[in-house]
Write the structure tokens for this entry.
Amino acid sequence: MSHDIHSVYFDISHFQSRRLTDAYTAMKTKCPRTGGAFGRWGGLFSVSDCAISHLRGKEDPLNSIASGALTGALIVFRKGPATMAGSALLGGVLLGLIEGVGILITKLSADQFLQANHSAVPVDDPSQLPDPIQKPPKQEYGMGGQYTQGGYQ
């Protein structure tokens, strides 16, 4: 009985060990290919984004969306126009989603700061605003001033 339990445990641990070894081997084999594909995509995207920005003369989210579509099409150039169209659509939609989420986050965070600024100083009470003519008081201890006060001149 004890021998059977040990045998089952050894089989399971050997199976898990073998799976880890196989996973590590697959990772070592596929990582250079995946990294190379990511590098090609990133390089082509950067070049097309800069080129489109230069041609259009302005920097906006449409440049990234068009660059994603152009990159998607150029990556699969050798597979034909139908595959290029599908890949361009996928690249454009993917970059459109990324840019849309970025714009949404920027808008939400800007609204949050805008609300904080409005709640800090009420617009209806001008007495809370600082006097524009009055100068701020001079600080005695700033930028090393504490060393000139006590005889350390």
